[in-house]
Design brief:
The chain is an alpha/beta fold. 54% of the residues lie in helices and 14% in strands. Strands 2-3-1-4-5 form a five-stranded parallel β-sheet, with helices on both faces. Helix 1 crosses helix 8 and helix 4 crosses helix 7. Bound molecules: ligand Z5A. The site of ligand Z5A has 26 residues, from helix 1, helix 4, helix 6 and helix 8.
Length: 206
């Protein structure tokens, strides 16, 4: 059986994760690999219900602690129901956002101490870490410009520029502290150039 791989895609909104997850899936399928594409929060029937609660704009009363705990509740379900079984069967798992988003959004953005997030990480995923994390990085102004055409804005998308600056900063700090796992993709460049950067990283991990 071929080596399983766990790859996560991270970045602020509008950075290009959804655009490039299909490209990455095709890359591995062309290599003859079985791919499981998934996302957080969500990825399971229960997790998608939690996602609805987290994203609904009407849920403005949700506290930062509740938000963090719901992220991890959905994650616990996702790991046991989807991620671990897919990895055990030798698949390449591509996940649109994972643990680093909790550090960046709930830690960096909301200001929850990283030590609390770390406690939950140790509880929910003691033996699981992505093999590769692609951080799609770009200036917050460009990202917000890209998504402003959307008619429906969710609870996160209604946050201000400062919030996303903190999220981006937190992602970059994490990437700096784990330079082997993280690969930073300059997603301010045209699609073709971003594709090229992603392809080069993937070739190295094969
Ligand atoms: N969240 C959290 O707080 N804590 C956690 O632990 C987890 C998540 C796991 C889920 O949103 C929310 O949950 C998320 C963080 C929080 N909220 N925020 N913000 P999501 O993941 O479902 O949604 P998103 O990340 O906001 O998705 P997005 O806004 O769609 O971003 P994206 O997938 O990175 O972008 P995209 O859809 O691929 O691209 C956006 C547009 O830009 C699109 O029109 C593209 O065609 C265009 N684009 C992309 N790349 C380029 C380039 N290179 N040039 C020009 N145009 C481009």
């Amino acid at each position: 059986m071929k080596k399983n791989l766990f790859i996560t895609l991270e970045g602020i909104e509008g950075a290009g994760k959804s655009t490039f997850i299909d490209f990455i899936e095709k890359f591995f399928v062309d290599e003859g690999r079985d791919v499981k594409k998934t996302r957080e929060p969500g990825g399971t029937k229960i997790g998608e219900q939690v996602r609805d609660v987290l994203l609904k704009n009407e849920n403005q009363k949700l506290t930062s602690d509740s938000e963090l705990l719901l992220m991890f509740a959905a994650r616990a379900q996702h790991i046991s129901e989807v991620i671990l079984p897919a990895l055990s069967s030798g698949k390449v798992v591509l996940c649109d956002r994972f643990i680093d988003a909790s550090y960046a959004y709930q830690g960096g953005g909301r200001g929850i101490e990283y030590s609390k997030i770390n406690l939950l990480e140790k509880w929910v995923m003691p033996d699981l870490k992505p093999d590769l994390t692609l951080l799609f990085d770009l200036d917050v102004n460009i990202a917000l410009e890209r998504i402003k055409k959307r008619s429906d804005v969710d609870r996160f998308e209604s946050e201000d520029l400062y919030f996303f600056e903190k999220v981006r900063e937190s992602y970059l700090e994490r990437a700096e502290s784990e330079p082997v796992r993280f690969q930073i993709i300059d997603s301010a460049l045209p699609l073709k150039n971003v594709e090229e950067q992603v392809r080069n990283v993937l070739k190295d991990i094969l």
